[in-house]
Amino acid sequence: NEDYVYLDKRPFMHNETQLMWSDSIFYDRNLGLAQAYSQVDMIDTSYKVVMRGDYVEMWENRGFSYATDSAYAISYDGGDSLYIHGDTLFMYFDKQKEEAKKLIARRNVRFFKSDMQGKCDTLTYLMADSTIRMRVAPILWAENSQMSGTDIDIKLKDHNVDWVLQKGNAFIISQDSIEGFNQIKGRDIISRFKSGSIHRVNVDGDKAETIYWIRDDEGGTIGIDVSKSTTMVIEMKDNSVDKIKGFKDITETMYPEDDLKENDRYLPGFKWNDEARPKNKADIFRRIEAEMPVVAPTATQQGEEKPEGEEEQPKRHRAKRENNNN
Question: Which of 25, 84, 131, 257 is spaced 20 to 30 A from 48 at the CA atom?
Fold first, then answer.
């Protein structure tokens, strides 16, 4: 039957911009469905993205593919590759142009790139405009900073982070060079990057707050600065706060270290999750079953909200098989 084809011995399929090969492939011409098994590689050459897993379905007529079983993707355009893992990966492509449009990773999502790492429940990577959207309990790490919020959007430019937008319960934490944690908090935060480091932070909302340690040139503690205002603009230098400019309802106090109680050195909602940070590309597969973050002594733990309209986990299509590999 010419409508059904089964191939083994490491076969491959391709069109102008996409290639797929695996240990074996079953193809249903009527459904436009290819099922690939074991050590599957699917490459989109237009946006230089590889999707891998031990089981992949490619639906030509419906314009998407998905991978499960040790699934991960690699964006390899440029010298520094981005590695993304999730329980299930979806690749949506333009049927007319035969090129990838977006990659979606769902459940236990972790990713690694030399200048940024992250975790969340759902990640969407829009290839055309180089935007990454992190949803459901997202955390992003960049150099010595941890960034969290209800949602996080990342804009890439020339393969590097251009800006990061944290929407809702936005929090940036960086560990001080000696002790303590520098913190920035607000409703929304947008951070602009230069040469891989944060160089300007805009904090918006009804309440912007910072706590940071002030040190002399030898690293000795001068004091701990606590600032509040409606909005803030923060200039960074060498991964440390250089200048803070508050707008409206400004309060600022610098405390000697011994005068600020331990509980008052943390903003509400403080969580330091460094143990969950992916350490290398292999670490994206590590399961974080029970995180043990460093939490402020009196911090209130808040639950995470799930987005509306979340897609259900796909079920594998049980297609008819006939072995035409004669």
Answer: 25
